[in-house]
Design a protein that fits this description.
single chain; 5-stranded antiparallel beta sheet; 13 strands; globular
Length: 157
């Protein structure tokens, strides 16, 4: 078993399509995605409900930009820092290199219910060394949403 980490973003104003999460695996190890949670706190009324399309992609490509780089928090006290990098809310999305990204999961979600991806162990997405994993919001919300999210993953040496 490897080391488990979680990265988060909190109360971010989302007005555009973007990479909500981008996890770049270290060159020396793989990453297993355990769960992704996305929610919002600004549109509670039924009249404000909308469906947004989200994709989970794996592959290679150049990193996005326009967001921030949170520190992935280890679940075990004393664990080493995550060997790769995490970026959140990149409004300039990751660019594919020669069509090298594969859509693993494509879904629409109701913003009032949030998006929850917690697959069974045998269905978890594995990112190879130096690979990339992207949670891509494919379309902008109808109006600004205050969104938060978390991603939990495991680094394997």
């Amino acid at each position: 078993m490897g080391r488990i980490y979680t990265a988060v973003f909190s109360a971010v104003a989302v007005t555009a399509d973007q990479d909500l999460f981008e996890v770049n695996a270290p060159a020396t190890g793989m990453v297993v995605i355990h769960r992704v949670h996305i929610g919002q706190s600004s549109d509670p009324a039924d009249a404000e409900a909308e469906m947004l399309q989200i994709q989970l992609n794996r592959g290679a490509g150049s990193a996005g930009s326009g967001g921030t780089s949170p520190t992935a928090a280890p679940h075990s006290v004393g664990s080493a820092a995550f060997g790769g990098t995490v970026e959140v809310n990149n409004t300039t999305q990751s660019a594919e290199s020669s069509g090298a990204q594969t859509v693993i999961f494509d879904e629409c979600f109701n913003v009032q219910a949030g998006f929850y991806h917690e697959p069974a162990p045998e269905a978890r997405i594995v990112i190879p060394p130096s690979g990339i994993f992207i949670v891509n919001l494919l379309e902008p919300p109808a109006d600004e949403l205050t969104m938060s999210g978390s991603i939990t993953f495991e680094e394997l040496d």
